[in-house]
Structures
1.
Amino acid sequence: MKSALLLPTLLFVAACGRLPNAAPAIDAAAIDAEALRLMRGADVQGLALAVINDGRVAHVAAYGRRSVERNLPLTSDTIMYGASLTKTAVAFLVLQLVDEGRLRLDTPVAELLPRPLPDYPDYRDLAGDVRWRALTPRILLAHTSGLANFRWLEPDQRLRFHHDPGSRYGYSGEGFYILQTILEEGLRLDLGREMQARVFDRFGMTRTSMSWRPDFSENLADGYGLEGTMEPHDERSRASAAGSMDTTIADQARLWAGIVRGDSLSRASRAELVRAQFPIASAHQFPTLTSETEPRNADIGLAAGLGLVTFRDTTGTAWFKGGHNDSTGNMVVCLERGKRCVVMLSNDVRAERIYPALVRAVLGETKMPWTWEYAWLAAPVPDRSP
């Protein structure tokens, strides 16, 4: 990568009125230098990063290229794919509805929809299994539905329960599709509009949307896979609770600062977001339905929160959320103490190889369960950086 394209776009917010438990000041120059070093070692084409301290945006940077073929730089306002970071934003919306009394986390889906779930064409496969009645918003948000991540991963591409709802963790985008059905069919809400009004507009996220906007094409990131092959950005025409958010690192900085502060939520709902809803015993997050377990998860209290994963760090409660596809690697890690977060978006999936080291550079040593999040870390790629 040419040095001119490695110059970061920076945004600083001065810290003031610090409290005794406030997060330590960050060294933005050192973070930038480490990010660039790690990117070179892993052949990462583009990476955007934000640091949140004391619940405020402290640093935003973008490095590398949004398009290798056209030699275009990645900037802090480049549109990137949010992927499954969408799920936490949707959970934030759901908890607002809970605060308003429009939804309860433990109400069965049968009471939330005007018709039985299997009467909807997308869920006819569940007609012969009464376990759909046990589904609740909490179960869906905590990924304990018993459904595969996506039905197209099933041998016959049909939806089915692999275990009783609420009995074990298993990451499921299908669960968020059902949650969206509850919002749209039960509460008669338009998910895209509600997310825009309640989340994106509220936090001043002017370049974020749940569906494609034509103006995004002016500064848009292409994606790059493990072999460096370019994948064009997918123009998603319909809002999807499982992951349709287009966004920028500047907007994501605002979002996660608002989430870690608990803006727009009651104290009870903010606590519920990161509370350990259900223990996670699986050895890895993916594949989702294997029986392999990891007893050491209990040592850090690894558990499902609502639309995120929570654990016990040395400083107290911590949590994280990833977003991934073949050409996207996103990750957010937050520590409750000091309201400290690092937010990382990349249009190159190889960036996931450097996230453990990059988070360490920003937050210091943590108990973040990297090998659970990224199973391939059991055999890490050597660091080739100088």
2.
Amino acid sequence: MTDNKTKPPNLDLINMVQQARMMHDREALPSTMNAIYWIESKPLTSTSTATSRAGEWLIETTLSEVDNLWVKIRHATETGRLGYKSKVSTSPAKGQAHTSARLIVVRTYDADDTADVARIETALREIGVTKLRYERIAES
């Protein structure tokens, strides 16, 4: 007789896979990747998690500029200067028509925390980002 109940997910295995992915992404440059769509970065010592009201800073860039900008954003994310996660597209993102277009996304914990959203904007501008826009992440 078999048990038709769904087994709970193996959280240890999921965590191991996520850690391996983050180790890979730590060294990856978006201009050299084509097997994955996004490269991600997270703070190395953060315990904060996103709320259901999370938001994101969207930074459009180009293939010729993406690596230099991503290295700066990845470092700022890892050291806790930005939000709970940043990611960069390795090919044009949805809505980007030009083949050299790339998108960097910097996620914030809570779009209603205007002080934190402003803090992250300031950090991005200090890195050299001049064009960016902010959006709430659609709740599912």
3.
Amino acid sequence: MMKITYIYHSCYLIEFDGFSVIFDYYKDAPREDGKYWVKDYLLEKPGDLYVLCTHSHSDHFNPVILDWKQRKENITYIFSYELKQNGVNDPGAYYLGKEQLFEDQWIKVKAFGSTDVGSSFLLTCNNHSFFHAGDLNNWHWNEEVDKAEALTYENNFLCELELLSEKTDHLYAAMFPVDPRLGKDYMRGAEQFVSRIKTACFFPMHFGEQYDKANQFGKIAARYGCRYLPVSHPGQSFTLK
């Protein structure tokens, strides 16, 4: 059993027996008991904690995460090398360039590309694979740029998707942008993703407060045999086998 919690924006927490993994922390989310998921629960929870960050954009990286080690000893930071290039130089962190791998007794993390900056991450543990896209998406902006430019953006995404598909053809769960700012074709990248890589469970991210629009992807995901997990609020948890 595992629990996956939507914290906020692109931040997800995955809890396993003995350890937890949190991606792209931006800001905390309240729990039903009035406390907060990270500062009151996660940092007090026994077991190892892995803190992953795909890139340095302020909606994916909050410097406060580097202070967490003052409260929790068994914490491991795994960052995109792009953070180091932008001045995040923690001596205890692991920095992964594209195609580089971190591995220990609990998890394997491999860095893949992005169509913005930084990386996306493929996490393998407990015989399951999980993908956090970071800012990897089909950022076509086809309502704002000319057709040739939009096609270039799309081709960049499809190339990165192909590289990922060469390493894995099945994911237990994917956390991937469904961003309505892209206009009427805002779900295009997500559909291309689940059509290319068999994905058992899909968790949306990078949609701001537009939960209804993000959740419209559920019908599309179902066409590809993918279970969509509808998100309605920060701090929402899903228990999966």
4.
Amino acid sequence: MKLTNTRLAWIFIALAVGAGACSSPASKVILKEARPVSAQTYYVAAEQFKTAQFAPPPAPDSYEQKEDLAAVLAWQNKRTEDDCAKANATANFTYDSLWGARSPFPQPLPAGVKKFFDRLASDLESAVTAMKDRYRRPRPFKAYPEQARPCVKKSWGYSYPSGHAAFSRVFACVLTDIVPGRRDEFFAKSDEIARDRVVGGVHFPTDIAAGKIFGDQFHAALLGSPEYGKDLEKIRALLVK
């Protein structure tokens, strides 16, 4: 089979996602400093992600796009009511809905911890939106309304990269920065959340792969933020003893 530029890009993505590693100071992606798109920036400005190097989604009618749709339809044909209920549980994206009992912090969340994750989510939302606006990929149920039938609440934004995959990946990386010994647990939950978006029918698999890679890039930029380092030290003092 001929390896097109898009296919080569997605082979690279598959290999990168398979590594399953957060960024580290030695491997962080170097991104140009920029001003925020609109809202206040706390750690990482979103503007840089409008032009940061990133593989595009599969082209419409390409072999890769057909494979993406086939994967969505395969899950649609085999998913159970329990699968859909589980996917719905994290459709409303919040720190508590994602981590719940797995959170290393006291419940309810201390004010300082909530403020930290609210700031992180604000920056990440702006960055993910900047990326989605670059590619404007329709979600499966919009691209294929006659075939794709979601079993979770429909998200009406663009599909690529997956916001849930990016958010859960970044949160897993950040929680690993705070509690390194629980890395595998945090990443397993992150991967589960991301997969449920395909199970639920609101994302293609390549959206998920891209969301994970974008999450690693965003975390790399976080590691270069002095403000992030300072706030991380503050909330470490609030961990469950």
